[in-house]
Write a structure and sequence with these properties.
The chain has 75 residues and is mainly alpha-helical. The chain is elongated.
């Protein structure tokens, strides 16, 4: 995995965390809980790149799709 793929993973994780916080902050009164949930979801994406909880085979397929998408986006 190249450095650009890792940077894109970090950016996508940041988007996941930010959007989760933004959406949950309207529904949850505690200001820290949406941040915690967002960080957990972003970490799940970044560290496993299989955030859907699928089987190992499905996880490999998703990771191959993500890598193929990265190849079309990144130089």
């Amino acid at each position: 995995m190249s450095l650009l793929h890792q940077v894109l993973d970090i950016l996508i994780g940041g988007l996941i965390a930010g959007l989760t916080h933004f959406m949950l902050s309207y529904a949850i009164a505690d200001p820290n809980l949406p941040v915690t949930i967002g960080v957990i979801l972003a970490s799940m994406y970044y560290f496993s790149r299989n955030p859907w909880g699928a089987s190992r085979e499905q996880g490999k397929q998703w990771n191959e799709r993500i890598d193929a998408m990265y190849e079309t986006i990144l130089p």
